[in-house]
Amino acid sequence: MNPSWIPFQDLATPMADVHTKEQRSFNMSRIRGKDTKPEYVVRRMVHGMGYRFRLHRRALPGSPDLVLARHRKVIFVHGCFWHKHRCKYGRVRPATNAELWEKKRQGNVERDRRNLKALRAMGWKILVVWECWTRDRAKLEQRLRSFLEDGTPQNTQPAPR
Ligand code: ZN
Prior knowledge:
Elements: H1 13-16, H2 21-31, H3 38-48, E1 54-55, E2 66-68, E3 73-78, H4 98-121, E4 125-130, H5 137-150
Parallel strand pairs: 3-4
Antiparallel strand pairs: 1-2, 2-3
Bound molecules: zinc ion.
């Protein structure tokens, strides 16, 4: 399990009261069950498309969440907050412990960048699926299909701010 995958609701109390309304409803949508976690959503979808994969290969930089060795493709599922996606969830600035969170998040962003670079150098094709993408299943499926069929790398971690 990727340590950066701590769901919002599992964090210590300081975070609890700094959530925006939007973020809170986003979190609530994920509390229903384990299977609604973005990573499971992606796994189930890729599996349903007939692809087989392995999980969290530690031998690879960043232990990608899904590894399709035969296709030389990897998929990461990233939490918007933790990996600083350029979306409303990624832009949330906690009111308390702001510096601490920022340091953690920036550390993740830098680690991601190094890992993606290393994987690319090893010839892997990479798709980063953002947590917020899993809210629109039809679009997510389209994005996964496009990556798996054409191997078009769709996106990477945005440039540092
Ligand atoms: Zn996002």
